[in-house]
Amino acid sequence: MRRRAASLLAVTMAALAGACGTDPPATTQAAYCDATHRHRAELSRPLLAAAADVPALLGVYADMHAHAPLAIGREWAVVEALVRAAAGVDRNDPAALAELARSARLARTAADQVVAYTQQICGVLIGDQVPGSAPQQNPNTRDTIMVSPTDQAPDSVPESSTPAH
Fold first, then answer.
1. Distance between CA 69 and CA 59 in Å, rounded?
2. Residue 118 contacts residue 124 (beta carbons within 8 Å)
3. Closest by alpha carbon to 86, among 110, 104, 112?
4. Three-state SS string across 37-98, please?
5. Which residues contact 7 (CB under 8 A, 6 or more apart)?
6. Contact 36/64 with Cβ under 8 angstroms?
7. pTM of this prediction?
């Protein structure tokens, strides 16, 4: 009976090991910083000269999200989703562009947290600006949607602007 149980355990362990395939990427700070250094150029100044360059950039963001430690995993999920949405947006659809701009405003906090964490933990500034600073136009890009926190609609209308009855 013991021999049969041991055989069953060995078969189960072998099956589980084979089903697992490759190990997921490490999500330690060291692995994240290694990925950050590896992708520093693409994260700071992505070169998108042609549509064929987009999949590689999406791969960089997916790799960064995969290596993100728990401390910023959710934030990287938001940033990666925004980059994927931007890559797939119909540039001729004003409603789609407006929704993308709205998503970018909502993702600003997550992006700032990713940048701040990366700078503090890895010593690398990714992106074009320090979190909380004014957006900068990249002179190498055209048709860039620039969004800042002040682009949001006000939550309420000031009393002085409401018509008198």
1. 18
2. yes
3. 104
4. HHCHHHHHCCCCCCHHHHHHHHHHHHHHHHHCCHHHHHHHHHHHHHHHHHHHCCCCCHHHHH
5. none
6. yes
7. 0.64
Round to whole Å and give the CA distance between 130 and 128: 7
Nearest residue to 135 (alpha-carbon basis) of 122, 151, 124, 120: 151
| pLDDT (tens digit per residue) in 116-165 | 999 999 999 987 665 555 444 444 444 444 333 333 333 333 343 344 44
Question: What distance in Å separates the CA atoms of residue 127 and residue 118, rounded to the nearest whole number?
Answer: 11
The token pair that represents 81 in the structure block: 């989703």
Tokens, residue 57? 């950039």
